[in-house]
Amino acid sequence: MRWSTGSVKPSVAKADLLVVGITGQDDDRPRLRPWRDLDKTLGGLKALADGQVFDGKADKLHLLPGGRTAAAWVLTVGLGKVKDLSPQSLRKALAAASRRARAVGARTCVLALPWSDLGDMTAEAVARCCVEGAELALFRPGSEKAKTGKDAKPSPKSWKLLVPDAAIGREARKGFVAGEAYAEGCLFARDLVNRPPNKLTPVALSRAARAMARREGLSCTVLGEPMLRKLGMGGILGVGQGSRQESKLIVMEFKPRGVRGKLPLAALVGKGVTFDTGGISIKPSANMHEMKGDMGGAAAILGAAMIIARLRLPVRLLVVVPAVENMPDGDAIRPGDVLSMASGKTVEVLNTDAEGRLILADALHYAGKRKPDWIVDAATLTGSCLVALGHEFAGLFANDGKLGDALRRAGGETFERVWPLPLVEEHHKEIESPIADIQNIGSRNAGASSAAAFLEEFVDEKTAWAHLDIAGPAWTSTASPLCPKGATGFGARLVARAVELLAGS
Ligand code: BES
Ligand code: MN
Ligand code: ZN
Question: Do 359 and 245 have their domain in common?
Answer without folding.
Answer: yes
